[in-house]
Amino acid sequence: MVGIPFATRMTVVRLRDGGLWLHSPVAARDELVAAVEANGVPVTYVLFP
């Protein structure tokens, strides 16, 4: 897939226990990292499809 534009989207879900579940994570920009860290809760699960 080199040279072919491919749109991706990441989903972040807050779990009942307060942790975060990341589905299809993408390369994180500084703004995204800051937003996740601002929640003060751990990323509990990461799912790579």
Question: TL;DR?
Answer:
The protein has 49 residues and is α+β, with helices and mostly antiparallel strands.
Globally, the shape reads flat
Compute the number of strand runs: 3
Per DSSP, what share of the residues sits in E-state strands of 2 or more residues?
25-35%
Strand order of the largest sheet: 1-2-3
Oligomer: single chain
| Total DSSP helices | 1
Segments where pLDDT lies below 50 for 5+ residues? Answer: none
* N→C terminal distance: 17 Å
Major sheet summary line: 3 strands, mixed
Q: Taking all residues together, what is the mean pLDDT? A: 87
Decide which structural class fits the backbone.
alpha+beta
Into which percent range does the helicity of residues fall? 10-25%
Order of helices and strands: EEHE
Task: Write down the Rg.
Answer: 13 Å
How many structural units, i.e. domains?
1
Keywords:
3-stranded mixed beta sheet; alpha+beta; 49 residues
Descriptive report:
The chain is an alpha+beta fold and 49 residues long. The protein has one domain (11-47). Helices cover 18% and strands 27% of the residues. It has one helix and three strands; from the N terminus they run ββαβ. Strands 1-2-3 form a three-stranded mixed beta sheet, with no helix packed on it. It is flat, with a radius of gyration of 13 Å.
